[in-house]
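Usage

Read records sequentially. Each one opens with the input sequence:
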Amino acid sequence: MNIQAEFDHKITLVREYMARKEASAIVLQRTDNFAWATCGGSSHVNTATDGGVGAFVVTADACRVVTNRIEAGRLRDEELGGLPVEMSVIPWADDRDKYISGALIAGKKALSDSPLAGADTLPGDFIDLMMSLTPSEIARYTALGADTGSAVEAATRAVRPGMTENEIAGRLARECYDRNIVPIVALIAADARLTSYRHPIPTENKVEKTAMVVVCGRRKGLIASATRIVSAGPVSDDLRRRHDVCALVDVAFNASTRPGVPIADVFNAGVKAYTDGGYKDEWLLHHQGGPTGYRSRYYTAHSATPGLVAPNSAFAWNPSVTGTKTEDTIITLENAVKFITHTGGWPYLKMGFGGVDYERPDILIL
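and closes with the structure output:
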């Protein structure tokens, strides 16, 4: 599937969705929704916000991007290249929302993913359109996964005692940008901080022995997540036991994530693995992950999550047992789970589940 076919497919999905909702226009201003609709187009300038510099407006007979004169050239040349999209370019001092409300959706029943006068809120089930990846998206995601795995492993291999977490984060950022990846999440924890915090943003804390490196990397709108851990010298028996159980939980989650399986059943399989491993309450200390794609997680799964695993969808499960964690990104193919951030160049533990052996990342010993 080429980009034009992917775009046509997505616009058909959007218009069918509009018909079901009895709407005549949809406005996508979030950067993740914009990236999905434009087959990887980036409307970011400030990565610290979900709002973009372009709004994608779909009606029954047109697709249009509304932006200002500052952004129009880049969006047209680098993000929308060749797509049959009209552009409305307004002065940078004008109010984009007011223009959309007055010139494009006035008199229409419109749905918007961000607050917009004259439009109703886009329902949450819009993400269902984004879940099943097209063949071209799977190809882009697979390439991103390989590069993300390579980046996080290169950064983790470079860890040495005495380095600060910020230094490690800087190395991780370099490895990502060298591969045309934006590291939208970088979590680094060394030693005591690894056992104390589940979301350890990097600090000036220095590595004594053990460090965890976590990344969510974005390219063409898609996001791949992975975690790796390194130790300067052999790990303790306690950490060895904890990491082995964490890997078993990881396999239970990932091996259970098959098209058509209730997501609640997948979650419960992971929780059971915690209990079977002797750490039954650890899942209460951090979310376990969920479906991913154009967001780091569309939502975090739990035991009452409705719905089924969609075919050709992406998930990133991230089980943790205090002091350790495992995480990779997968795509749920028809007859297999594809670990797209698995590089084959890391030490692995072989874990069996349902008669199939899986390789899960071990702790790298320097």
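Summary fields computed downstream for this record:
- The chain is about 35% helix and 25% strand.
- The mean pLDDT is 97.
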